[in-house]
Write a structure and sequence with these properties.
The complex is a heterodimer of chains A (338) and B (419).
Chain A lengths: L1 E8 L7 E8 L2 E6 L2 E6 L4 E2 L8 E4 L5 E4 L14 H9 L2 H33 L3 H16 L4 E2 L4 H15 L9 E6 L7 E3 L4 E5 H6 L3 H16 L2 H24 L7 H29 L5 H14 L15 H13 L1
Parallel strand pairs in A: 9-11
Antiparallel strand pairs in A: 1-2, 1-7, 2-3, 3-4, 5-6, 6-7, 8-9, 10-11
Helix pairs in contact in A: 2-7, 4-6, 6-8, 6-9, 7-8, 8-10, 9-10
Chain B lengths: L11 H10 L6 H16 L1 H20 E4 L1 E3 L3 H17 L5 H14 L1 E3 L2 E2 L1 E2 L3 H23 L5 H25 L1 E3 L2 E5 L3 H8 L4 H10 L6 H28 L1 E3 L2 E5 L3 H33 L3 H33 L1 E3 L2 E5 L3 H17 L5 H14 L1 E6 L31
Antiparallel strand pairs in B: 1-12, 2-3, 3-4, 5-6, 6-7, 7-8, 8-9, 9-10, 10-11, 11-12
Helix pairs in contact in B: 1-2, 2-3, 4-5, 4-14, 5-6, 6-7, 7-8, 7-9, 8-10, 9-10, 10-11, 11-12, 12-13
Classes of the chains: A alpha+beta (338), B alpha+beta (419).
Amino acid sequence: MITIDGQYYDGRQPIAVPARLEFAGREAILTAGQVSGRYTTDRLNVSPCSGNADRFIAIPDGGQFQCPDHEIMGSLPQTSPSEGLVAWLEARWGVALSGVVIVACVLLAGYFYGLPIAAERIADRIPLETERAVGRQALAWLDEQKWFQPTNLDKATQQSIKDGFDGLLSDLPLKDHYQLELRSSKAMSANAFALPGGTIVITDDMVKAADSPEEVQAVLAHEIGHVELRHVMRSVLQNSAVAVAVAAVTADAASLSVAIAGLPVMLAQAKYSREFEAAADEYAFQLLKQKGYSPAAFASLMERIAAKHGDDERAFSYVSTHPVTEERVKRARDAAKK
Amino acid sequence: MDDTPDYSKYTLDQLQDVYDHIDRDKYPYRFNLVRYEIEKRKADPSLEAAVSARAANEAGDKANQRELTLRFLGSPSEYFRIWIVNLCLTLLTLGIFSAWAKVRKKHYFYSHTTLDGTPFQYLGQPIPILKGRVIAAIAFVTYYASSRFFTNLLPYVFAAGAVFAPWVLVRSAAFNARYSAFRNMTFHFDGRYPDALRALYMWGIIPAFALGVVFNWWGKIAIAGGAALAFGIAFPWWIKRIKDFLIGHTSFGTRNGVFSAKGGQFFYVYFRSGLIMAGVMIVAGLFTTALVSTIVKRTQILVLLFLVPMYAGYVLAYAYAQARSSNLVWNHTRLGPLRFRSTLSGWGMAKLYVSNALAIVASLGLLIPWAVMRTLKYRADHMQVLQEGELAEFQGSDMSAVAATGAETVDFFDMDISL
């Protein structure tokens, strides 16, 4: 006979009554103050095990008996049997340590291989048109908020940039979607970027920073690379997947530590961004050579712009959204030599 | 400072005692007061009867009041195993297991929180939680896609969200109450959709905000800014109404919660929190600038260093608002014979948040379970439950019995959306 001491709750009042449950063969005998009862054990129901917590046994009279965990509980009917297996796993350090290894492998493999590949495949199936409205709105907003002013370049320069741009586009799969926008901007100085949907913006300062039309072509080729490789859509997919994964892992910590998820998400997304920049560079070098230009123009322009800023980029290489200039320049020169 | 005792509350015996022992030269005024009070009592015996009855009552109340010990007994090493096993299964099932994981974790939190020696019970089932998560995921993807790609649909998405939000609030509160139990009695939430609608959309500020989106008032900055400002000022009263709604409709046995805090008290908390944020940012920002501009010339480093005071100000203000609003809510909540006393401090919470963050980052996340455990313990340690009267006031029924919440009774609309 097994005797377990605990408390009994009748469900009518939240008051603990000292109680005793005795197991004799297939019968359980409950005594709790005025209450007593004799039940076959298959009519009892045990709450799931959780660490070393007390367990609750539902008694057929509607009451509950609370007592420390005991090995006999395993042989009684369970409230949620499926939790038993998880509880078994949770109780073992060996399982927990393998869990650490598996989680690390899944996260790293997903981050380095799974996610970029999946995002590329999915982006290929989504037409570029879906992005167009967003790109237009973004440009309208930038114009409206005075980030941009109309270009001050003379007509001849404008025309030569447009001609050069069209020349680069001639054989591209997405060539009908492009739109080149010239703007002057005090806030952004020398800059060029690809908006969603194939709109490419280049600032007057960038054009002026270039020593030759070839250097302007090099910048445009880089932005074309972003569009052709669908970097907007891929970064949306990859970044949101990273955010969801980080949220899943840090869900417990979210409420107890301010903005804890922000840092890993930022670092992870910055790495993807640097990879996209490097990929756009490579694309640009190929395109330039194909059109008879030298990637060395890209290198000389990058160097000139970097010399103006003079910041030490290396210290920030892990948080930066762009690769270190020195490396980009070196790769451009290597591409020019081949 | 006048600290003259209020002799009108003393009994005749106490007054006589003061009369006999008081230093007449040092306190002539008090001596006169006592003599006057004694004469008054002797002239009118009913006055003395009232005073002694009240004194007896107060003494009785004190004896009748007792503290129910609240403890959190979770262990970091035990919870670490639960956390990693469930996280692993969640990742391997692409998130589907997360509903089961939530049940397991809640089980652990509830069963390791004891009140007066009895652990709480979590009775939630995974399927309603999974349903809630699927709905939340669909809502999020819809919102995200429309905000990025189909912006013309955004107003309709907002409108749908506004219609569904009260429903989500009601269902989640009902789920959490119904599947939380103490001593074989479940909690109950009886708030309905119209009540939630009134609580959430008070004075029409939020609907006005939503209409602003639908009819594209966003271009008109004055309207958008005005709505945002009005909402910012009304925010404390809004929070008060939501707490009032949630607590007032939650019952245990036959007793409903009663919430007595005022919106102004919330305003005071958030206002001070805002002052803390502004103060820390300005002082620390000036200090950093002075320090940095003399040593460092590079602008990028300057920008990064500016993040430190910004973050410090944010953490302190957030911790203060969390601690004080939590205190405010609990200290103004009554449940039958139970009162609560929450004594969280903003500074203590800030230290907890920062040390948690550092530990989690340094351990690459492996100390998350440890941080969870110490935070729950900290909160339990700063909470007192006081009982004034009999626990038997809570009358259970067949509805509130734990046995009535078995898996087979889970109804179709049961769901838990809180992530």
